[in-house]
Design a protein that fits this description.
Shape: elongated
Mean pLDDT: 78
Number of helices: 15
Strand order of the largest sheet: 2-1-7-8
Low-confidence stretches: 1-43, 156-171
Structural class: alpha/beta
Distance between the termini: 45 Å
Length: 499
RNA sequence: GGCGCCGUAGCCAAGUGGUAAGGCAGAGGUCUGCAAAACCUCGAUUCGUCGGUUCGAUUCCGACCGGCGCCUCCA
């Protein structure tokens, strides 16, 4: 078991398939449904990098669709659990896609794996590490699992029962205050929303911790016949107790020493210096950003600018810096697409080489995204310089860019539309270029055509040296969100302003 | 009280036992009718403070100051 996660470079273990999973709590609760108080899960970046390195990754992301809050919310709305959860799950997937996070290979829902959970719980009862409490619920007996606390270094903590005020008062059903619930005896409200199942040890519903273990184990065993994960990811706040409990129940059940070879814990996103949390009322959701028109590339740029194990303090200035950086990369992508030739200038090939080395070294070293991003900016600077000098960028640079884009996907999606000089003519009437309407079309889909027509008019006016009019048109377009850039070869770029 | 993290240029942020990536912002320059973009040049003798180890520490150790997280189902 490793903490302070340092994943072995892929090259050390090139063929073995890896199974990567994340425990993503509750499809019902705000967090997975678009909020990202924890970063977009680090395993999604790791997955991209491992895959780009030629390693097969199988990523499982659990959906907790049954827990106290989900049930309470469903009861409140008078709908079934499923009806309550589905919209959240869909919204979550939309936000995930918007953030360019790849879908997991499997996304099991807790309610569809209850049989697997019952099997694990029964196994734990059979092994004597679980017991049925007076309230009919089944608990895990921490005293029977000596390794408990290794991940969070709990063994070094003071384990006074009731050290925290949050425990102790009404936990009389447990033998030990630290024991956690595996199976909760059914309550009327559970039945009301369909959150109750029959089990040999009584009717009830699974506890949160067991869901993750049972789903992962079930998928791992059926697909590979193994019961240890290579990588287990999650946010730092899950280390204790959730991951600790997962380890306890999983290892007690499988008899293995570890549940995951490597634990990857992402730090939090802070807002105004404090953890983003409902408790503090400082929530920022992916949905919010989307509605503000923020480019997902900029969001990723900001996220990758800080190591995943480091807290990231979200601020408008940080976002705006990321937006600029992301736009610079997007502009280079467009430039490269137009300029790339069949061969690389030797200097360009060397730059691409340097980039590949630095990029791989950074990501192989515990996914050092900030350093990888730095390397990308160096490549872009050198590429831009060479293009300015009229040198050729070819397959080497294209491939280097492609790798970066595949793994980081941080470039702004705003694309420049380039119009060649010869295409910049417009019909004239009595020596005056025919103009499109001053007001941009309501339908944003027609916006580009409108902007391009105006750009052509401006080019015409410019040729006639009517600079005042040309400047007026540029301002008009800028007001409508379009940036015009004259190029040295006489062509123009029209860029949708992504801000 | 226990466990743990952080403090690097105006801002964000990597990193190394031998004197500090990258981005943003700013200044000057090239280019341009003017812009924008791009490129070039410029910024920490210094990495919270004070000690210690060392030939040498920002990097290791200790103390202190400041900020933050977790301590049994916020999920």
């Amino acid at each position: 078991m490793e903490r302070g996660p340092r994943v072995p470079p892929p090259s050390q273990d090139p063929v073995r398939p890896r199974k990567d999973r994340d425990s993503l709590p509750a499809a019902s609760c705000p967090r997975p449904c678009g909020r990202f108080d924890a970063r977009p899960p680090p395993q999604s970046r790791r997955g991209r990098w491992l895959e780009a390195s030629g390693i097969e990754v199988f990523h499982i992301m659990n959906l907790t669709d049954v827990d106290d809050r989900t049930i309470a919310a469903a009861v409140g709305k008078g709908v079934s659990l499923r009806e309550h959860v589905d919209p959240f799950a869909r919204a979550f997937e939309e936000d995930r896609d918007w953030l360019r996070i790849r879908p997991p290979h499997a996304q099991p829902r807790a309610t569809e794996y209850v049989d697997a959970m019952i099997e694990v719980i029964q196994g734990l009862l059979d092994r004597g590490v679980a017991y049925k409490g007076e309230d009919g619920s089944v608990y895990f007996a921490i005293a029977r699992f000596p390794a408990y606390g290794r991940l969070s270094q709990l063994d070094q903590r003071e384990l006074r029962a009731g050290a925290s005020e949050r425990v102790s008062t009404d936990e009389y059903a447990k033998a030990d205050a630290r024991d956690f619930v595996l199976w909760k005896a059914t309550r009327p409200e559970d039945e009301a929303v369909g959150a109750a199942w029959d089990a040999p040890f009584g009717r009830g519903r699974p506890g949160w911790h067991i869901e993750c273990s049972a789903m992962a184990l079930d998928l791992l065993r059926r697909r590979w016949g193994v019961d240890v994960l290579d990588i287990h990811a999650g946010a730092v706040d899950l280390i204790f107790p959730h991951h600790e409990d997962e380890i306890a129940q999983s290892c007690a059940y499988t008899g293995k020493d570890e549940f995951a070879r490597v634990w990857v814990h992402g730090e939090f996103l802070d807002l105004a210096g404090t953890k983003m949390s409902k408790r503090y009322g400082n929530i920022l959701t992916a949905r919010d950003l989307r509605e503000q028109g923020v480019d997902p590339g900029a969001v990723r740029h900001l996220l990758f600018n800080t190591h995943y194990r480091q807290k990231l303090d979200w601020s408008d200035t940080a976002l705006s810096a990321a937006r600029e950086g992301s736009a610079r990369l997007g502009a280079f992508r467009d430039r490269l697409a137009l300029a790339a030739g069949e061969t690389d200038d030797p200097e360009a090939a060397a730059a691409a080489d340097r980039f590949r080395t630095a990029f791989a070294a950074a990501l192989d070293d515990d996914l050092n995204a900030p350093e990888a991003l730095g390397a990308l900016h160096v490549l872009v600077r050198e590429g831009n310089r060479l293009l300015d000098e009229g040198r050729r960028l070819g397959p080497a640079v294209r491939a280097a860019w492609g790798l970066a884009d595949e793994v980081l996907a941080v470039a702004s999606s705003a694309r420049a539309r380039t119009v060649a000089a010869e295409a910049l003519t417009v019909a004239e009437e009595d020596g005056i270029p025919v103009r499109p309407p001053e007001v941009p079309p309501a339908d944003s889909a027609d916006g580009e055509a409108w902007a391009l027509r105006w750009a052509a008019v401006r080019a015409t006016e410019k040729r006639k040296r009517n600079f005042a009019e040309a400047d007026r048109i540029r301002d008009l377009l800028r007001g409508a969100g379009w940036e015009i850039r004259d190029r040295r070869d006489g062509a123009i770029d029209v860029v949708r302003d992504g801000r």
